[in-house]
Write a structure and sequence with these properties.
The chain is mainly α. Helix content is about 55%, strand content about 5%. The protein is elongated, with a radius of gyration of 17 Å.
Length: about 110
């Protein structure tokens, strides 16, 4: 099945939603429209960056912030070339992670 840019309509089918989200992530999507609050946990779990991905993103951000790398368009990090495009992707990934953590924390706190 092809991932849909529409909300997954069978909101009682977590397995189907998870499969569609996983396929979308593999294809480079970073989220999916949802039609029911019960789908939030599944989508957040699948689209949230993993620890290794988050750690790498933070290393890219820290490397570009070093005084010797400021203003450079390309640097070397752990033997790999890293460009400003990667910095932008890393900043976006960390921001997405922080937003998910913040939303989950606010949904657990009493109103």
């Amino acid at each position: 099945a092809t991932p849909s840019v529409q909300g997954y309509r069978n909101f009682n089918n977590d397995t189907g939603l998870a499969a569609e989200c996983e396929q979308g992530r593999v294809l480079g999507f970073d989220g999916k429209p949802l039609i029911h609050p019960s789908q939030i946990e599944t989508a957040n779990r699948i689209f949230s960056p993993g620890e290794a991905e988050l750690s790498h993103a933070k290393a890219v951000i820290e490397a570009f912030a070093l005084p010797e790398n400021r203003g450079k368009g390309v640097i070397s990090l752990n033997g790999q070339m890293v460009e400003l495009l990667h910095l932008e992707q890393a900043e976006r990934l960390v921001a997405m992670h922080d937003s998910i953590v913040q939303l989950e924390a606010s949904s657990r706190s009493p109103a």
